[in-house]
Amino acid sequence: MKNKLTLSLAALALATTSLAYTPSAEVRQSQEEFAADRFGIFLHWGIYSMFGQGEWYLNYGPKADEYAKAAKGFYPADFDADAWVKAIKGAGARYICFTTRHHDGFSMWHTAQSDYNIVDATPFKRDVLKELSDACQANDVKLHLYYSHIDWTRPDYPWGRTGHTTGRDSTAADWPAYYDFMNRQLTELLTDYGPVRAIWFDGWWDHDSDTIPFDWQLAPQYEMIHRLQPACLVGNNHHQNPYEGEDIQIFERDVPGENTAGYSEQDISRLPLETCQTMNGMWGYKVVDTNYKDTVTLIRYLVKTAGQGANLLLNIGPQPNGELPAAALDHLAGMGRWLEANGETIYGTTSSRLPKAEWGTSTHRGDTTYIHVTDPGVSSITVPWNKKIKKLSAYAEKSRLQYKHSKDSLSIAIPIRADDTPDYIIEVVNR
Ligand code: GLC
Fold first, then answer.
1. Fewest beta carbons less than 10 Å away: which of 147, 226, 258, 262?
2. Ligand 1: which atom is nearest the Cα of residue 148?
3. Cβ of 104 less than 6 Å from ligand 1
4. ∠ CA 308-310-312, rounded to 5°
């Protein structure tokens, strides 16, 4: 009996150790590079862009076979992968995350697993993912791939809580077949498109209300990804605490630590963090959504995200003709100018060590603190500070600023500035 017990305890210990995921050296390196990048651009582009109603359009009425006819008219004549990537790099972003297949089930690369793809189903016949991957490599921009776990078109995808009106047969679910399909697609993505720094999953929540808990079999899928590209990071927009095998933690529409959109009840993990956010209101191109945040707001959001120790993955919904919207290009250029001058205070920094404040945040590198005063109305700040100060100056002007440093508190007077100053940066170097 005792022997049996020892044996089963040993087996249990073995099982638990084999469950625990340890990121490889390659993954750790990617995590470090990812965390230093701080800024990426999300691209939601698919045949849904043609309807101009966002990437969820199929969920709101059309039958999948009727919707699929859009593919026959998809000819984004003005698509220029190099122009996209150059504009994005010009913004100071260091990676893109491209929607290879969204919930509508249309694949934006030449997959052999289904004809419902950009090459076989459209008159355009170009593998846009291949072109993007080449452009990324040529411009030294990292490539991340969004991949939807949901499919509102394929009958084998088990019925979740969305996509009920597309005409899909709810009784034809075949999880093993669908899981296999996804893994074959992921294998293509990780074999034929150069270095992929991350796979970004979405859709887990489609089965969060099942009566019998749904098993997505994430662990073997993650393992396969790491096997195919050992440096590839895995992230999942499930709004839960990270699962084994995940290498980054994603937050949707909120910086870590806030929950204004209702997707962020999860804890903040020790993984590198990313917040995805829209430039206007929608992810996919929406013709009536011209409500873009202005450049100043976007810069402040990037600063705030960096202060929370996270990357900003800022979304653009490219137009059906293949161009990035003019407004988005404008904001990219504006952010690029700002980062050109101030990027040192963002890239490769760590999160704020100062108490949360209304006036802004801080970022850190070594002995240097960058205090970001993003509220233009603030004329002085006081923060806890117990280290000796070697230098305290305005980052842009390099001029010394007036300050009072008592034992553990630092007060700084901040010059008057225009309301559209995105961020007044103070550089403090400790002794
Ligand atoms: C949500 C939406 C999806 C979008 C994603 C981006 O999960 O369902 O359409 O792609 O957020 O974060």
1. 262
2. 10
3. no
4. 115
For residue 175, the CA-to-ligand 1 centroid distance in Å is 22
Length of the chain: 431
Tokens 């020892």, located at residue: 6
Strands 273-278 and 310-316: parallel
What is the residue-level pLDDT of the chain in tens, covering all 431 positions?
444 444 454 444 444 445 689 999 999 999 999 999 999 999 999 999 999 999 999 999 999 999 999 999 999 999 999 999 999 999 999 999 999 999 999 999 999 999 999 999 999 999 999 999 999 999 999 999 999 999 999 999 999 999 999 999 999 999 999 999 999 999 999 999 999 999 999 999 999 999 999 999 999 999 999 999 999 999 999 999 999 999 999 999 999 999 999 999 999 999 999 999 999 999 999 999 999 999 999 999 999 999 999 999 999 999 999 999 999 999 999 999 999 999 999 999 999 999 999 999 999 999 999 999 999 999 999 999 999 999 999 999 999 999 999 989 999 999 999 999 999 999 999 99
Q: How would you classify residue 216: left for phi > 0, otherwise alpha for psi between -120 and 50, otherwise beta?
A: alpha
Centre of ligand 1 to C-alpha 389, Å, is: 45
Looking at the chain, the number of H-run helices and the number of E-run strands are 10, 15
388 within 8 A of 430, measured Cβ to Cβ: yes
Helix (H) / strand (E) element for 295: namely helix 295-307
The pTM (predicted TM-score) of the whole model is 0.95
